[in-house]
Amino acid sequence: MAKAGSAYPQVVPRAIDLAHRRVTSASRRWSVDRALARSRVAGASVVTAGLRTAVRVEDLERAAAWGLGRMRWTDIAGPPRPTVPATADEIAVRRLSRAAASMVMVVAGGKVVGVVEASAGPAPSLAGRLERLHGPHTEARLWLLRLAGKLGEAQGHSVYVAGGFVRDALLGRVAERPTDIDLVVEGDGIGFGRRLAEETGGHLVVHGGFGTATLEGGATPDGTRLGRVDVAMARRERYASPGALPDVVAASIDEDLARRDFSVNAMAMALAPSAWGRLHDPWGGADDVTTRRLRALHPLSFVEDPTRIWRAARYATRLGLRPDPGLVKAIALAVRIGRYPALSGQRLQAELELVMDEADPWRALRLLLGWGAFRLWDPSYRVTARSRARLAAARALLGWARDAHVTLDGLDLALIALLLDQTRAVTDRCLRRLALGSGPGSSIVDAEAARSLVRRLEAAGPRRPSRVAEALRPAKSSGVIAAWLAGGGAVRRHIEWFLREGRAERPLSSGEDVVAAGVPRGPLVGQGLAHLRDLRLDGRVRTLDEERAAVAAWMQGLATKGESR
């Protein structure tokens, strides 16, 4: 029995007490297959080299299953891991684990004696934060989430909102930036979706192969329209090959979060009335939101799904997140592997379109260029200083067009800027990879035609607008853009004038006016109108009377030429 007033020693766990010791070491020179074999003999779950390099055996198994067994195992080991002495107290270990959001290496006698896996801290509630949010979409969304929690509880299912909504709530952006709602159900997600559709009057589209459904057209009781709502069962995913679409099986919410791309997306908020607002954050996403860090959950994340590379650039740009070293290394690994036969060109094209929908797509494209991401379009894609300059120029051109009220297609502009300095063979392969190689987009980038157009514009001189227009009028819009990117200051001014004014110039006279001035019906009418248009471009006629006189002089010239023959 405890004696009143007596002090008793407190047991403080040490790092070695928190660590699991199923660890084995391997040479850095070993392949994935050899390191995996060593782990199986040792019964280990983590393989290490030195004091700061480690990889989970499950990642080695995944790499081996995808045919990557001959790679060095350290290539998938992620960034250097933090270390603590075996005698460090629990507080120090947890603090370091939280900051690193990774494994912590426990060291004694100059070697690794165990690892402490990163774990989530106490689950805070977002309920108070949500109450402080205000905006045109917030009330309707919160009504929807509360309804979803009640319906799930009535069906015996736990329902969560995951991904972007939770991340944006932590950022205080829910009311400012409406996004799709992603609901996750531990149980029959499609059945839950049907019930939600009944309550909101929306239309449910079911995607049975993935256990997901999409609700559109729903509304609150007061008639406020709800945005798109994605409903999915909590699931694990297995990728049969890199870049393939996944096979899915039902799972818990924590397993569902573990399959996601980035820690800032691997969070969920409980919606049941009894647990409303409780945050599930097993991967430390809330800390990464606070520190503005973009971190991939697994070293093979981008090999598993290379389109995540484009997503990383979008999130880094839109949310102001800083890619951490592990993410950059994981992207480099995916780019090095290179070819992904299971990854369709349509998916790559869709990711580029999503980038161009961002508020600042050019910053995202610069990140992708720096990461070498376009080598996934073709392994021979080369990045040069000129490549970066082309992107900066394309951004400037789009800004000029916006101010000048000239319509330019941003996606075409980006493709031209990214491919203009590649060889013709690389360009053609890239366009085919994007499923653009045999349709209207197949000739979107023609570097030689652009250079030829630049030469013609340079020869036009500064005083003959009609010659500038004559050179540019037959060119495709993509060719005009390419010439602007490839040309110097004078060429760019010519093109800007043409896009803003020159291509829209028309004579005051109609075809009937030209006939009335003595031009016989037939091809000469069109030629006469074109002659008047050029005279107007050069400032030589301004009024209808001047145009009539010009037509008469033109006809006289034709007659004189005919007589001289």
If you had to describe this structure to a student in words, what would you say it looks like?
The protein has 565 residues and is of the alpha/beta class. It has four domains: 15-116, CBS-domain; 127-289, Beta Polymerase, domain 2, CATH 3.30.460; 377-504; 511-564, no CATH class. Helix content is 47%, strand content 12%. Helix 12 (308-319) runs parallel beside helix 14 (345-356) and helix 17 (410-419) crosses helix 21. The longest helix is centred in the last third of the chain and has 21 residues, at 544-564. The protein is elongated and about 110 Å long. The termini are far apart.
**Structural category:** alpha/beta
Q: Please indicate the count of domains.
A: 4
What do the pLDDT scores average to? Answer: 88
Portion of residues within helices: 40-55%
Number of strands: 17
CATH-level-2 architecture of the largest domain: 2-Layer Sandwich
The coarse overall form would be: elongated
- CATH fold naming of the largest domain: Beta Polymerase, domain 2
Main sheet: strands, sense, barrel: 7 strands, mixed
CATH class category name of the largest domain? Alpha Beta
Looking at this structure, what is the CATH superfamily of the largest domain? Beta Polymerase, domain 2
Strand content: 5-15%
Cross-sheet strand order for the largest sheet: 9-10-11-8-7-14-15
Radius of gyration: 32 Å
Low confidence ranges: none
The end-to-end span amounts to 129 Å
Number of helix segments?
25
